[in-house]
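Researcher: Let's try something more involved. This one mixes different molecule types, so please make sure each is placed in the same coordinate frame as the others.
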Amino acid sequence: MQVTSSVRPPLVTNGKTKKDVTDDICKQVEGKPSTAWKIAFTMALIMLTYGGYCLWTTWYEGIGMWGLNKTIGWSWDITNFVWWVGIGHAGTLISAILLLFRQKWRTSINRAAEAMTIFAVLCAATFIIAHMGRPWVGHWVLPLPNAYGSLWQNFNSALMWDVFAISTYFTVSLVFWYVGLIPDFATIRERATGIRRKIYGALSMNWDGSAKTWSRYEAVSLVLAGVSTPLVLSVHTIVSMDFATSIIPGWHATIFPPYFVAGAIFSGFAMVLTLMLVIRVVFGLEDYITINHIESMNKVIVCTGSIVGIAYITEFFIAWYSGVPYEKYTFINRALGPYWWAYATMMTCNVISPQLFWFKKVRTSILWTFVLSIVVNIGMWFERFVIICTSLHRDFLPSSWAYFSPTLYDVGDYLFTFGFFFTCFLLFAKYFPVINMAEVKAIVDSSSEKKK
Amino acid sequence: MEKGKNLVFGVYDEEAVLLHAVDKIRGKGVKIHEVYTPYPVHGLDDALGYHYSNLPIAGFLFGVTGTITALTMMIYTLGFDWPMDIGGKPHIPLPAFIPITFELTVLFCALGMTGTFFVASNLNPWTQPKLLDPRSVDDKFVLALDLATNKQTSAQLSSILSETGASEVKIKSDN
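Model: All components are placed in one shared frame. Result:
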């Protein structure tokens, strides 16, 4: 028996019953793809094809196709990698950390957010593999016996930690997501016939919904949430260590782990909002993803956005306070040097724009939320670009100073990941239940408005 | 749902009615075969007298296996098999091994525990359950009583089910 305070607004509106939940969510899985879906899917495929060509060329010709030079050896590739990994943080955060905090509003958004996580991590991996230059020897990052001795990896390196962190994060997120999907696949299976019944039957893994299985399911979910929580925090911590363990002024900062984690949650929530605002309208899920959900997520954004803002200011203060001339120069150059425009974009998008969410009017406005969620992700891309590029472009020797200009292949490889992400996400949205039906049914009685 | 069982089952509409029914039926000394629900009903496993799952223990043991695997791998490869001079630092720098040790602990725990769950609950893609009532994965709750484990007749069991608020009572016999 669940007791929910009467003061709280209902999580699911319009007096939906358990049966309505099944019908509303299964409707889009069972129906024919809509025209809007087909147009979006075609656009995603076009992006994927053009991007695929660029990525293939990058693999074939080498990373000389990018705009890198001898001073700037990391640029868009690593920027995009960190950006996508950051976006990939929201899904597991919503499903794991909010589960531990018993935040019931997560039930309407966790499924899509987790799917987004999985696809975003795959996009991030694309850049790691492309940046290897020779992707066909990608397995050399794994500790496999080899013909060189065996010569092993350097496990002291943050880049090696990253290999383990990202692959563990991907695997655990996938498992968590799939375990949650099984009961919903069983619901779809019982409504389907023919080949669809076979496919959803196989996906639903012999699920019969017995109390014993549910009891085990809950134990597994709780422990998975428990281990995923530090995992989420560890992943971006380790990504930040790729930079923080170096000796480049601008990278060499102990503030990086918490600062990166906050930034990741910030951009991840923004991306979830962008996608959910579209999904709720296209699939008619306004009663499940309500203004209250949007407002809660905006509160997380204003909180993490403020942490990110404080981190920027702290970095500046410490650069001056440390008395290290290189450090000081890097930060002054960041704000006023040739990349001032990137810095200004970052500051505006990440520090100023989320502060608008202090106003309830803005926080509960769908249009404002949609615009700001995109602005935040533009800002977060620039944050990574600013950190990576401005710290590198003025080398210790002035004769090595350089400026980075992206080539068509930088842009194309980035487009590839967008194409890939939206292709996967649209397929997911069409063929998988976008809302966790079982979990929503569990709260519908206690949290829905009084049934008429 | 096992073959060759003769089951009497009731379909319940409300979670609260189901929980009361479970208490009442068990109070009468009738053994419940199983309850099938569309979502995890809070308190149902307590009402049915199920003990808390041992899966977290399995998860812990898998996690420890991951910890040991990670440390053994790194200490063996960098400390003994091919020690490398990396900036003159120790060959077995434990602090630097923490991240990978943590990641493998989590990986082994998550995969091992989920795998154990699949095996324990017989979850696999190649068998298909035959549900007593397909609505039990939609919006109804199904409570099944096994004739073989109860001394009452099917008529008696049926009346117990309808007394406790079942909206429908059905009998499934395989032989």
